[in-house]
Specification:
The complex is a heterodimer. By secondary structure, chain A is mainly β. Chain A is 0% helix and 57% strand. Classes of the chains: A mainly beta, B mainly beta.
């Protein structure tokens, strides 16, 4: 069966520091991969998605970037974090088409 | 505003039925989904319905779709305290454009 892993589960970082969040999927090949941010009490905002290695689409202009160095690995990065980057970050995968997305357990990012 | 709208809160007594409502705006949406999020966790897919269906039942869950009114509902029968969570409605026209509501926080009182 397919599984998705995100780490770390929680992260506290100072303003201006770099960021790297990792997401990996097991049990499937060539998945579509997604990064979302969830602000407190809000819905999900799609940040990036990828349909293949090295293919990244950005949905909103921001202080973040994404990379997909391997088929089942998706990384969310920042060179210098802002206070507004605080939130709950969720990675998801799907097999494409109209199949549902499946989510990881999320990373709670707090910026001090 | 949100393309997908939900009321933010719902409170029910244990054993009662819960009905969570959702309206969406994209008439070309092909799939509609319900996800459950427990505190500090990711989203768990509960069920989804294809737009040519009116109803889907899965154990205690019943999804009703009124395509004319663009209204989707999730009914949880015999609600338990473990059902307390945030429930998200989502629509999907193509898989890279999945839109979520803000979520309905369901509180189940004993």
């Amino acid at each position: 069966s397919q599984t998705i892993h995100q780490w770390p589960a929680t992260l506290v970082q100072p303003v201006g520091s770099p960021l790297s969040l990792e997401c990996t999927v097991e049990g499937t090949s060539n998945p579509n991969l997604y990064w979302y941010r969830q602000a407190a009490g809000r819905g999900l905002q799609l940040l990036f998605y990828s349909v293949g290695i090295g293919q990244i689409s950005s949905e909103v202009p921001q202080n973040l970037s994404a990379s997909r160095p391997q088929d089942r690995q998706f990384i969310l990065s920042s060179k210098k974090l802002l206070l507004s980057d605080s939130g709950f970050y969720l990675c998801a995968w799907s097999t494409g088409g109209l199949q549902p997305q499946h989510f990881g357990d999320g990373t709670r990012l707090s910026i001090l | 505003g949100e393309d997908v709208e939900q009321s933010l809160f719902l409170s029910v007594r244990e054993g009662d039925s819960s009905v969570i409502n959702c309206t969406y705006t994209d008439s070309s949406s092909t799939y509609l989904y319900w996800y459950k999020q427990e505190p500090g966790a990711g989203l768990q897919l509960l069920t989804y319905i294809f737009s040519n269906m009116d109803m889907k039942q899965d154990q205690r869950l019943t999804v009703l779709l009124n395509k004319k009114d663009k209204h989707l509902s999730l009914r949880i029968a015999d609600t338990q305290t473990g059902d307390s969570a945030i429930y998200f409605c989502a629509e999907n026209e193509n898989n890279n454009d999945m839109r979520f509501g803000a979520g309905t926080r369901l509180t189940v009182k004993p």
